[in-house]
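for the writeup, i need someone to sanity check this before i put it in the appendix. the sequnce is what the collaborator sent (i think, or maybe the updated version? ugh). structure was predicted straight from it, no edits. if anything looks off just tell me and ill rerun, i have time this weekend
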Amino acid sequence: MLAGRSLAVLTGAGISTDSGIPDYRGPDSPPRTPMTYEQFVSDAAFRRTYWARNHVGWRHVDRTRPNAGHRALARLEERGVVVGVITQNVDRLHHLAGSRTVIDLHGTYADVVCLACGARTTRDALAARLEHLNPGFAERAAVADVEIAPDADAVIASTEGFVVAGCERCGGMLKPEIVYFGENVPRERVDRAFALVDSAQALLVAGTSLAVMSGLRFVRHAARAGRPVVVVNRGATRGDHLADVRVHAGTSELLPALAERLPAGRAL
């Protein structure tokens, strides 16, 4: 189905599970209730909970490295087969694997923005400030067996007393450059993703249940345009009825095998 065709690739949390980042909706995933944008901006207690948990979880996520699935897609791009990756993940593992054309649909955990003045900083720089304001908090929390979510959220028992950092420029509210539930993906980013799908001859979906419209719309778009759709995922997806080929498999096993078999495309 994919041989001889250029590919756009849509990925989700399932491609990063073998890097040690659990997904939201996999067959073995526990129920999760991610924080909404409205909760974050309207309630200081929610922000304190978010940043306390993120202060612990970010350390784990920041240490993760690409797995064989990420590296296979980077090789396919280098060989001219993959035109680019649209990822619903915020972990930047596609970038670290060497993929050059990556649309981070939901942003990344590595950047932070002030909602008041628009100033930006890195999550790494913010980590130092949070550690200074909350000495030893992450170490004490890590003593427990914490559960880490894909957006670097960590399930910890108490966030009481955690001090949240404000913007260094204006003192405003800081937020990760991640699209929260209840928040819209920027239109320009969506348009670039549609253009990427249109520039390819087939769509490969890897490691996502397509449970939210944010990713499913690209599968519907490709199917309407008559482009072959191949879905690789452990467990059912909302796009299964649109797929020309459906493979129940892990991406770390299947994508390297695919990379070995697909002939090279045009030189980049």
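The chain is about 35% helix and 15% strand. The two ends are 22 Å apart (CA to CA).
thx in advance!!
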